[in-house]
Amino acid sequence: MVGGTRLVGDVTVGGAKNSALKLMAAALLAPGKTTLRRVPDILDVRVMAELLRRLGCEVTQEEGGSVVEIDVPEKLRHQADYDLVRRMRASICVLGPLVARCGQAEVALPGGDAIGSRGVDLHVAGLERLGVDVRAEHGYLLARTSDAMRGASIWLDFPSVGATENILMAAVLAKGTTVIDNAPREPEIQDLCRMLVGMGAVIDGIGSATLEVTGVERMHPVEHATVSDRIVAGTWAVAAVMTQGEVRVREAVPGHLEMALDKLVTAGARVELTFDGFEVSMEGRPHAVDVVTLPYPGFPTDLQPQFIALNAIAEGAAMVTENLFDGRFRFVQELRRLGAQVQTDGHHALVRGVPRLSGAPVEATDVRAGAGLVLAGLVADGLTRVYDVSHIDRGYERFVPDLQALGAIIQRVEID
Ligand code: UD1
């Protein structure tokens, strides 16, 4: 890409990756055909579809469209192999539904990934509270119930999104009531709860830090539309500010992005709500803004790299504190190749804004870092090449065509 153009125009946001993957796993809870709408056409969804097929489901994905149909058999296979789990850590979310349906599950341990050492201890402890026996053997988590799972009180040490999803998807078919305290409140968790309720589950406290699940005997298939992707919407908002452009983000939910949009206003942007989303416009160079990532409704860690990119060209200096993932600053060394002045110390990054970045070859290290590097490239002098964009494909639909439509000089090239 060649930096320097303002982004101007409309862009439409699809369903959230972090919701769609879990909704697909939730389909496993009911034999029959579940239809999911507004599923983003991204790499991770294709990996999840493949995983469900290996478990015995028939999955059809409309070519270039957003409807996914999952036909779940009465009898499921219960193994999720390493070759898929290593491609996508979120595969771990089949653990809960498989134990609930089959009484057993074997899911490869995800291990660490490019954004740090992400454990599964909270997933395991939660399932154990429900009466599931979980062991790690030969790189697999083996989960088994001798009799029916029983509801329990679970206090989470940390409001883990993934652990809560697994616990929820097991608890809906357990006997009795499960209470999850210190539960995460992310819109994607709420979306999953709503789909489960649509399938016959009984869940109270949706959107709060205490979820109460009363187990039912059986769930039924459902038709459900995925919540809008707040991280993609936020990425477009940051892109508008960095390029001093004017972008209308459609089919987005500004209420899911309050903290990030407020930061952009502090940086000098104008944010206006529209009937189906919001519009962001910016004149002049943004001011630096401090950011501290926290569980929802705090500032999302998945927008942290994009805000480091913004601060890299802002007026002034900002402190960015990452509280969720320990490896998330790895991309900073790539950003430095573009001339950014960023100093990291543990989970803090001090970013001193420079007036111009200068184009260079860089490498995407994970999906959000990849997005952050593209944003930086859009405001860098000359040519920037971002390698390994398959990371970006994991979470962004039509990223390059959408950027082109907004006026960016960018193209995707295949390299042998
Ligand atoms: C999900 C999202 C990710 C987002 C994150 C936080 C998906 C596919 N990914 O990740 O994009 O950034 O929520 O909003 O939905 N932890 C443990 N033990 C556990 C589980 C988690 O120590 O058993 C730690 C992790 O290492 C991390 C923190 O808790 O430091 C947050 O993890 P969690 O909320 O579980 O995030 P994910 O579900 O992995």
What brief labels describe this structure?
24 strands; alpha/beta; elongated; UDP-n-acetylglucosamine1-carboxyvinyl-transferase, Chain; binds uridine-diphosphate-N-acetylglucosamine; single chain; 24% strand; 416 residues; 2 domains; four-stranded mixed sheet; 14 helices
Question: What's the structural domain tally?
Answer: 2
- Give the second-level CATH assignment, the architecture of the largest domain: Alpha-beta prism
Contiguous runs where pLDDT drops below 50 for at least 5 residues: none
CATH-assigned fold name of the largest domain: UDP-n-acetylglucosamine1-carboxyvinyl-transferase, Chain
Q: What is the CATH superfamily of the largest domain?
A: Enolpyruvate transferase domain
Summarize model confidence as the mean pLDDT.
Answer: 95
Description:
The protein has 416 residues and is an alpha/beta fold. It folds into 2 domains: 8-14 and 228-405, Alpha-beta prism (UDP-n-acetylglucosamine1-carboxyvinyl-transferase, Chain); 17-217, UDP-n-acetylglucosamine1-carboxyvinyl-transferase, Chain (Alpha-beta prism), CATH 3.65.10.10. It is 30% helix and 24% strand. The chain has 14 helices and 24 strands. The protein has helices at residues 17-26, 43-54, 82-85, 95-102, 121-129, 161-171, 187-198, 230-242, 258-266, 304-312, 332-336, 367-378, 390-393, 399-405, and strands at residues 8-12, 32-37, 58-61, 68-72, 79-80, 104-108, 133-137, 140-144, 153-155, 177-181, 202-204, 210-214, 223-225, 246-250, 270-274, 277-281, 291-292, 317-321, 341-345, 348-352, 357-358, 361-363, 380-381, 385-387. The strands form 7 sheets. The protein has a 4-stranded mixed sheet with strand order 1-14-16-15. Strand 15 (270-274) and strand 16 form a beta hairpin. The model has no long low-confidence stretch (mean pLDDT 95). Bound molecules: uridine-diphosphate-N-acetylglucosamine. Uridine-diphosphate-N-acetylglucosamine binds at residues 18, 21, 90, 118-123, 158, 160-163, 186, 301-302, 324-325.
